[in-house]
Specification:
binds 2-acetamido-2-deoxy-beta-D-glucopyranose, single chain, hydrolase activity, SGNH_hydro_sf, 11 strands
């Protein structure tokens, strides 16, 4: 990754920024976090997201996204009327920055999580681009910063049960600290997501044959704790940091809502994922897939053991424009409308 940054800094003078905004439209979207937001930052062929059948619905072949098609970033950008941000990993390729930059990497969190670059490191990459003069302070004050740190710190945790609940204080604290780092660099407008419903992802519901969410009081306490403590910290940011504004996406609630109202979103399968088994893996000897894949992923909410389909994301992000699925503003569009951009 260090090589990548150096390569990229060498080519900065050739990069240009795609300015889509007119008047009060936000111009850039910067994205941080995990696989729910990553649009292809893991190196090609190193993760399942670069293997068949990922990307089968769109673009028709693997694109490094953990989905059959779009992920949250794509749908959010499209909702905001800006192109899906350029992947940070592609900046070394002398591409034009359109829509902003996506720094998210599948597997990341704010602790070790699964060992991929955490939010703090991603913020460091952003700091390098700011230091290189790629964005003006005005660009940054009008930009949106989307942060998806939604569960890897918990799902990768392998310590004692005693240390598990305290994570629900530590993880929001580390998210808060990194948001403040971004603020000090010029970021003002933050869209931060609450956890995925860890108890309902297919990897947890497989034992019940994907018929019911896991019933585990520890998991429930961690989800409620994290979302509550993070909410407190975000509220403090909006109150105390001059000109800052935060939209807190109630992702846990939105996903539970979709799972409980499938037909409203033209979905037929909730807990059962489209891709069952070791999605993306094949038997190295025989080449036979170690998974089965459904015919129409757009009927399913979940794509694989952890990730929604593009249709699932469309439903979830759509709810942020309905009252009661966001905090600190009535809806996503109301929040955007109130920003002084
Ligand atoms: C990556 O995977 C694709 C498709 O499986 C293959 O064609 C390509 O050669 C691989 N690239 C590398 C660098 O292994
Ligand atoms: C980078 O892209 C610009 C514009 O597309 C082009 O003029 C320039 O030659 C490219 N530089 C390199 C090193 O490829
Ligand atoms: C447990 O987590 C630590 C990081 O907290 C990691 O270094 C280690 O590899 C993990 N062990 C296993 C067996 O996954
Ligand atoms: C509940 O979840 C915790 C944390 O993942 C785990 O250690 C514990 O064994 C689970 N309890 C039950 C009853 O499954
Ligand atoms: C709120 O933020 C201020 C300034 O950023 C800080 O000094 C204070 O400790 C925070 N309060 C809480 C309860 O986190
Ligand atoms: C807050 O916004 C006002 C008006 O645009 C500006 O003058 C001031 O410098 C900003 N302060 C910070 C800390 O961003
Ligand atoms: C669901 O499908 C119907 C019929 O195809 C369509 O009219 C409706 O707009 C769809 N609703 C959503 C939320 O996609
Ligand atoms: C792969 O296929 C071989 C030959 O059929 C079999 O012996 C082996 O158990 C398979 N491995 C896995 C991981 O399924």
């Amino acid at each position: 990754m260090r090589t990548l940054v150096i390569l990229c800094l060498l080519c900065l003078h050739t990069l240009s920024i795609y300015a889509n905004g007119e008047g009060s439209e936000p111009r850039l979207l910067f994205v941080f976090g995990d696989s729910y937001a990553d649009t292809g930052n893991t190196p090609p062929n190193t993760t399942a997201s670069w293997k068949v059948p990922y990307g089968m619905f769109w673009p028709g072949s693997p694109s490094g996204r953990w989905s059959d098609g779009f992920v949250s970033t794509d749908i959010l950008a499209s909702t905001l009327g800006i192109p899906s941000p350029t992947q940070y990993a592609r900046l070394a390729l002398n591409v034009t920055i359109s829509g902003g930059v996506n720094f998210a990497v599948g597997g990341s969190g704010v602790t070790y999580a699964f060992g991929t670059p955490p939010f703090q490191t991603q913020a460091g990459w952003f700091a390098n681009l700011v230091a290189a003069g790629l964005f003006t302070q005005e660009d940054l004050s009008r930009a949106l910063f989307y942060v998806s740190v939604v569960g890897n710190d918990y799902s990768a945790y392998n310590g004692s049960l005693d240390g598990y609940f305290p994570l629900s204080h530590k993880v929001p604290l580390l998210i808060d600290q990194t948001l403040r780092t971004l603020y000090s660099l010029g970021a003002r407008n933050f869209i931060v997501s609450s956890l995925t419903p860890l108890d309902c992802v297919p990897s947890r519901t497989a034992p019940s044959g994907f018929t019911e969410c896991e019933k585990n009081t520890t998991t429930d306490a961690v989800i409620l704790g994290h979302n509550h403590f993070l909410g407190n910290r975000l509220e403090n940011i909006t109150r105390k940091l001059e000109n800052s504004s935060v939209l807190y996406l109630q992702q846990t609630k939105a996903m539970r809502y979709v799972l409980n109202h499938l037909s409203e979103f033209n979905l037929t399968e909730g807990l059962k994922p489209c891709c069952v088994g070791q999605c993306g893996a094949v038997n190295v000897t025989t080449g036979i897939p170690l998974y089965t894949v459904c015919e129409n992923p757009e009927d399913h909410f979940f794509w694989d053991g952890v990730h929604p389909t593009g249709a699932g994301w469309k439903a979830v992000v759509g709810l942020y424009n309905r009252p009661r699925f966001t905090w600190f503003a009535r809806t996503l569009s109301a929040w955007i409308g109130n920003l002084r951009l």
